[in-house]
């Protein structure tokens, strides 16, 4: 069964990192006045390659719903057909897509949460944060503590840093942690892999609560905190293993891999 295709028109393009050739792309949809999706979902872009073969690639939406628009965070991949196509787009040009798709969404009822990401895995986390803490409109976080733990190699690859720091400065319950896994001269922030910092957050939280991180209530699978992980397979596995070691249950850990 063929999926309905829409036309995404590039409205704005920002270079997030020159060394990594990572771009923030803002699209509008020609056929729609409103694009209904849930923060964390993805779209699948479609195009024919040089041989005339149809290619499809999934990209997490890097924004919360707004009118007929959505954002993507895309880095150029050597010899990557779709990454180069998208990174080379200029405002006014279009690409077909279908969607939204995916179940990497905030579980309801909302709980405390730890967002864990590396690289362009930050895309759905930006969508989550925009939805929870909109610039205008009601705060949807319900005052629940929300952590974002973002890991990358170099300072040039800390995508959306100013945005997340702004939200953290404005919202007492949003905590932003970034860490580098490679040496960067002059970097005074955290170092190491994200799972190390996640373990510290979880352990300190459990100590404050004088209880294990899992709370059983009358309803089945009732948890007071969830983890949402997006990135490469090794990072996702490392964080799942670490949380399991700390007593978390499988259903508390929601993840999406992109390799």
Polypeptide structure, described:
This protein is α/β, with parallel strands linked by helices. It has 2 domains: 6-101, Elongation Factor Tu (Ef-tu), domain 3; 112-257, Nucleotide-binding domain of ferredoxin-NADP reductase (FNR) module (Rossmann fold), CATH 3.40.50.80. It is 22% helix and 32% strand. The protein is built from 5 helices and 12 strands. Helix 5 (233-245) links the parallel strand 11 and strand 12. The longest helix is centred in the C-terminal third of the chain and has 16 residues, at 194-209. The radius of gyration is 19 Å and the shape is globular. The chain starts with 5 loop residues before the first strand and ends with a strand.
Keywords:
Rossmann fold; Elongation Factor Tu (Ef-tu), domain 3; alpha/beta; 5 helices; 259 residues; single chain; 2 domains
